Amino acid sequence: MDDRIRxxxxxxxxxxxxxxxxxxxxxxxxxxxxxxxxxxxxxxxxRDANMLATYASGEMSRAYLRAHGGxxxxxxxxxxxxxxxxxxxxxxxxxxxxxxxxxxxxxRRQARSRARQGIRxxxxxxxxxxxxxxxxxxxxxxxxxxxxxQAFVYDxxxxxxxxxxxxxxxxxxLLDDGEEVRIRNEGTDLTMRIDGRTAVxxxxxxxxxxxxxxSGEVFTAPYATAGYVTFDVPQTVRGTRVEDVRLxxxxxxxxxxxxxxxxxxxxxxxxxxxxxxxxxxxxVGMNRGIDRVTDNLLFDEKMGGxxxxxxxxxxxxxxxxxEAGNDSxxxxxxxxxxxxxxxxxxxxxxxxxxxxxxxxxxxxxx
Amino acid sequence: MDDRIRxxxxxxxxxxxxxxxxxxxxxxxxxxxxxxxxxxxxxxxxRDANMLATYASGEMSRAYLRAHGGxxxxxxxxxxxxxxxxxxxxxxxxxxxxxxxxxxxxxRRQARSRARQGIRxxxxxxxxxxxxxxxxxxxxxxxxxxxxxQAFVYDxxxxxxxxxxxxxxxxxxLLDDGEEVRIRNEGTDLTMRIDGRTAVxxxxxxxxxxxxxxSGEVFTAPYATAGYVTFDVPQTVRGTRVEDVRLxxxxxxxxxxxxxxxxxxxxxxxxxxxxxxxxxxxxVGMNRGIDRVTDNLLFDEKMGGxxxxxxxxxxxxxxxxxEAGNDSxxxxxxxxxxxxxxxxxxxxxxxxxxxxxxxxxxxxxx
Lengths: 366, 366
Description:
The structure is a homodimer.
Chain A: H1 3-16, E1 24-30, H2 34-46, E2 50-56, H3 58-67, H4 77-85, E3 88-93, H5 106-115, H6 117-124, E4 127-132, H7 136-141, H8 146-157, H9 161-177, E5 180-185, E6 188-193, E7 200-202, E8 212-213, E9 217-220, E10 223-231, E11 235-237, E12 240-250, E13 253-261, H10 263-270, E14 279-285, H11 297-300, E15 306-312, E16 331-337, E17 343-346, E18 349-353, E19 356-357
Parallel strand pairs in A: 1-2, 1-3, 3-4, 4-8
Antiparallel strand pairs in A: 5-6, 5-17, 6-10, 7-9, 9-14, 10-12, 11-12, 12-13, 14-15, 15-16, 17-18, 18-19
Helix pairs in contact in A: 1-2, 4-6
């Protein structure tokens, strides 16, 4: 086995999920993530944790959803019980065909998603971590050779996470003290409130309320969004290519939308429920190890010099204890590139200009 | 997709598991059983059943077990909850390497098996069905080409199960009315009591208390076994080749054992617990569609003209309501071929001679 796969598994189980002896761990293995599954199984065995492997197959989901009548039972008891009793959930994605479910009707998918809100909440209440095992399909989606893609993934995953966490603590402090964020670039002039919200230092560990490996972003839950934004980083959303999505907000809600490509997917998302038309997340990418767009959200949204916004559900970690944030069955991240002419301001003070933070070399203070 | 895979999935979900709308179904997908998993997902969707896929990976199990310290927690709560809430469990085996776990220490495996008795019982209390998707590794183990092996498997699986069920009802009646069974062939002269026990007409459907697809056997739970038996059908047990196992019984318990090959595995099984030294099952193969040994228990034990005996746990279906049969963490089937000079007698009456039943053409009544 490639040593990098073992290191990946060790980082996931130790740094990210903080698995202890006796923990009840669900390992969700994607169709192409078998090798990482084996390495994770070894790590869990070494820690005397308990293991149950689930199979996350795009082809099985597609076949099931297409054949189903469309009236889904709310939160089937057996799956809910599994996640309610679990301590950790490790999601190892690894697609063999990133378009495997592209021909599933959107309303079918939405209906199932709505029916599984309790299961989703139970899973999010565990020490869950999502990561990715590099596959040929994902290399293809990134327009990269398999070998180069593997190097890309492991560069992003096998980092000095403790050092990056310290660096990100700076931005978290600035956002926690701030009241209003303003983002401007070529197609964007957007303001949103963040007062009363707590930013998360997303250092790829549940100890930081951070659930993605790789990570490297600071995010909070904005509200009262106003203005317009263009998401100029191309993405594949639900199997469909989406480009240059432009959203207009008034009083926190999307009032207009268009897209150069994939507009129907945007419409489908916005129509899921009421909360899908409001933002659940503002995230600032800080992982300088990720230096190119690969059409995989887990990486793209962490790229240093980008900002992303999510339509839909907000994370509890950003909210005051007991306060409910934006609620929705979806959480869909869209990304805008700040590495051209841009500013990111908090209460009128420029924190980042043209993709460079004020504490980084090359920051233009004027 | 091969039409036979779709027919297999339909037989499994309809005839075997009798899945209804709203049922909570666990689908356990082996490393090489993906295609059948997709076909089963479609069938479950068509019936508006719920689906949760688990991943049964020999390589993950091996890595986990080898790394583990050896003190396993009893029945981890999350897995137990899953099976306690499930209605059906469909086990799709499909190995990519039938020796994948051959280097796991036997005591490690035994310890885990002992710690999972509650989970096992919860799973056995569902409408569970075990079946097999033909893989190249299994073709290799059978010494067959892939194409020929696929034909073999589907011949055994895609049968007129209703008609076979009627034929097997005959033998069930004879065993239910009988008190003592005697089996004789070249290396065997064994008697066992069966009075008070109920034979199961194993017609590959939960409606018949039958949990294997293919099936085609009638089995009961014997006791007070005495004599000797030679299992002359070679098998791979726990990844190890086992040949010509000879067991001697006194008062229901194994008092002596030897094997031409794989004796250490036999010892390991017998040492699991007290119940592992007694029989949990006497089974009579009646599937004439299976006409050759392929070193896969699911098929070999159903072959017309063979008899198998299992060390370990008895099935509740064979026992009077409320009565506990032989209890053990293991249930290991071993097979003897009756197609040479042999007799199978119940209370002194010959039901089968030289592998031919009394109601079949060619039966020698003398």
